[in-house]
Design goal:
The protein is of the alpha/beta class and about 130 residues long. About 45% of the residues lie in helices and about 15% in strands. The protein has five helices and four strands; from the N terminus they run E-H-E-H-E-H-E-H-H. The chain has a four-stranded parallel sheet with strand order 2-1-3-4, sandwiched between helices. The longest helix has 15 residues.
């Protein structure tokens, strides 16, 4: 199974998304909050994200769900920090999906057969998913 990290500008928003996603969780895998900054300010911190990635890392990789802007940039910086430390980042990826919907779907498909590529393939459908049926 793949480990997951959630990176939002808001620790509370990430915790709520994780709480909701845990309702769909059928297997035991890391689902770590890598959000916020020191001092409970809104934002993101590459060092916090890096530590969350290390906590979530499994032999199948880590998938990171982000909200917007600097969360994406700081996640990329965190991955670069890991590379600079000699840690393989080949199986550490950012999911290019909506944060909440992507996280819920990712949790639902992450099972003992899943690897980073199979989860990303499943999530790719969310890019064209419509919530409206009319």
């Amino acid at each position: 199974m793949v480990g997951f990290v959630v990176v939002s500008h808001s620790k509370e928003l990430a915790e709520a998304a994780i709480h909701l996603a845990n309702e769909m969780k059928r297997y035991d895998f890391p689902l770590i909050n890598g959000s916020g900054t020191d001092g409970d300010f809104l934002g993101s911190n590459p060092l916090t994200i890096k530590e969350a990635i290390l906590k979530a890392k499994t032999d199948k990789g880590v998938l990171i769900f982000v909200d917007i802007g600097s969360s994406v940039l700081n996640t990329q910086v965190a991955i670069d920090f890991l590379k600079d430390e000699g840690i393989s980042t080949e199986s550490i990826k950012i999911a290019d999906v909506p944060l909440v919907e992507g996280l819920i779907a990712g949790v639902a498909v992450n099972d003992e057969k899943a690897d980073i590529e199979s989860v990303l393939e499943e999530l790719n459908e969310l890019k064209t998913f419509s919530k409206l049926t009319y």
